[in-house]
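Lab meeting minutes (informal)
Scribe: AK
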Amino acid sequence: MLEILLLALALAADAFAASIGLGSTHKSDVKPQFIKMALLIGLYFGVAQGVMPLIGYALGSTMLGWFAEGASWVAFVILVALGIKMLYESRSVNDDDTRINVSHKTLLSLAIATSLDAMAAGFTLNLLAVNAYVACLIIALTTAVLSVLGAYIGRQSGTWLGSWAEALGGLVLIAIGVNMVV
């Protein structure tokens, strides 16, 4: 269960970083308007992060028989590659305070973009002794809560914390990947 919680935190790092950025550009919003926006961010990011690993799990379970012996190495490569990608992206976070229009289209685009790595990570759920549906629910709830929190943090502090969160998420994914082959 600890692996799932760590995976959920790592996968939520992208959404957390994005929500910090969104929150930082809406510092001047009135409180009810900001609360609505923060809850929408949590809803969109949480649902996307919960559904994508389920898709990856389904794809992985159909393909697992094809390469059962090397499955842990495939999971290792996926998680380490995602971790390295997140570490790289954490170095390029934009500190621009340009206001971002938080429309449903924008949120859907960001939710899908930040959850594509969760689909790849969902493949690894086949190799863990966990219920994939419960794991996806934990991932979704973790992401939703951290996204709402990220919007509030962004409103108060700006974008500087987002890059650190993404870097930490990358390191956690690499650690989980290494743990799968050790």
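Next up, CB showed the second protein from the same session:
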Amino acid sequence: MMEVIVSQGRIGDRGAGMIEGAARTARALRERYGVEPRFVGTPAGPEDDDWTVSLPAAEETLSGLAQAVSASVAAGRRTVLAANTCSASLATLPAAVRAHPDCAVLWIDAHGDFNTPDTTESGYLGGMALSGACGLWESGHGAGVDPSRVVLVGARDIDPSERELLDKAGVRILAPADVTGQRVAAAVGGARVWVHIDWDVLEPGTVPADYHVPDGLAPGRIREILEAIPAADVLGLELAEFAATGDESTDARATESIMDMVAPVFATAAVR
């Protein structure tokens, strides 16, 4: 059985459309699969602030997401998170690996999100989400993700100091030119997986996102990845950073594209 959790509180959002993008994703999942979403957090406007401000401001939302994911996983459900920002994973990934310490993490993103308070140049909380979940810094929301069980897919905008941290931690990286379904499945090695997708991993113009990084993946490649992993092995799926534009036709096309890309995950309701 699937459970859809929707992050609606600001978690470092610097763009105006991502809370609505998460809500649109959740509504589309409800319409297609008949699952009533669980909303967490109260929407708030974007701010261009530093992580030292945005992290404590997001305490209530992050704690709520951790509780919701923990309950979903404990109930044996396939957990789907519609998230406004990758920062949500500071709380959700630790909750997932507490229950499934042997799972692999597929972080499908144009960025490494592996900076720390000591290396970040932008101060953006989302740029430190994966490193926090791996315990490289103390977010206050847990850790526990083994970096050697993380596969970073499609990344192409990585800071030099961030690259050093990734290499030292043993995170495997598949650049866009190297990404195929077969290679990603081989990197996972038959393990159960928790999948995180930031839509800026795509070539700009498919799903609106706040960050535009050229030379990204095509939507068909995302679907290919999810087809290559047995649906029963996908413990959770996080869909983050769809920046809704307010133009109905644009947002509807993007939502439909998202539904098509992730459809293989829902080919079966079984979770082993």
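CB comment: The chain has nine helices and eight strands.
No objections, moving on.
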